[in-house]
Write a structure and sequence with these properties.
The complex is a heterodimer of chains A (110) and B (114). Chain A has 110 residues and is mainly β. Helices cover 0% and strands 56% of the residues of chain A. In chain A, strands 2, 4, 5, 9, 10 and 11 form a 6-stranded mixed beta sheet that branches. A 5-stranded antiparallel beta sheet of chain A has the order 1-3-8-7-6, with no helix packed on it. Chain B is an all-beta fold and 114 residues long. Classes of the chains: A mainly beta (110), B mainly beta (114). At the A-B interface, strand 4, strand 5, strand 9 and strand 10 of A face strand 4, strand 5, strand 9 and strand 10 of B.
Chain lengths: 110, 114
């Protein structure tokens, strides 16, 4: 499976601003999941969106999915310094094997 | 979600040696996976750990280099054999098979090979 692409590779914003990250993938999927990773540690699961869903919310997170364009976006509203991390999208192309995107490094400055 | 632990959390090893990483889950799970994250990179699936049978490896990964065991529904091991500096990575186990399709990851094992 080919790795998905994420953009931007890096994003630097101020606290209180919104952060948007985009993910593109190449094949049909069952679902798409977003994860956060702090300083090379384990991955924290943020949200899952199924292939038949177009938008999903969880707290300050909003995820969209456009299967016709094979793309997804993650919006973090009212960002905080604690949101500083790397964010990855991952697609389930079958059998729950995840194909990860290249990741976005988010820096939120106080 | 399941609580997943990994041991060791980090290790520094010499070239040519082997290291076995353990993954323990606090509940029975149907699916367990092993991923590698090379420095500054994203995650790549190594294999699916199958309970009671041989693991299923992804392209580019072989059993001789990364033998995997899964004796029951809560435990799995990954061995990195005959290590070289190129094996320096974070190794993560994950569990799936949840009713909602979510997959959860352990804290990872940071391996440095000198």
């Amino acid at each position: 499976s080919q790795q998905g692409e994420e953009d931007p590779q890096a994003l630097s914003i101020q606290e209180g601003e919104n952060a948007t990250m985009n993910c593109s993938y190449k094949t049909s999927i069952n679902n798409l999941q977003w994860y956060r990773q702090n300083s090379g540690r384990g991955l924290v699961h943020l949200i899952l969106i199924r292939s038949n869903e177009r938008e999903k919310h969880s707290g300050r997170l909003r995820v969209t999915l456009d299967t016709s364009k094979k793309s997804s976006s993650l919006l973090i509203t009212a960002s905080r310094a604690a949101d500083t991390a790397s964010y990855f999208c991952a697609t389930d192309e079958g059998f729950q094997k995840l194909v990860f995107g290249t990741g976005t490094r988010l820096l939120v400055s106080p | 979600s399941a609580v997943i632990s990994q041991k060791p959390s980090r290790d520094i090893c010499q070239r040519g040696t082997s290291l076995t990483i353990q993954c323990q889950v606090d509940s029975q799970v149907t699916m367990m996976f092993w991923y590698r994250q090379q420095p500054g990179q994203s995650l790549t699936l190594i294999a699916t750990a199958n309970q009671g049978s041989e693991a299923t490896y992804e392209s580019g990964f072989v059993i001789d280099k990364f033998p995997i065991s899964r004796p029951n529904l809560t435990f799995s091991t990954l061995t990195v054999s005959n290590m070289s500096p190129e094996d320096s990575s974070i190794y993560l186990c994950s569990v799936g098979g949840t009713p909602t399709g979510e997959q959860f990851f352990g804290p990872g094992t940071r391996l440095t090979v000198l």
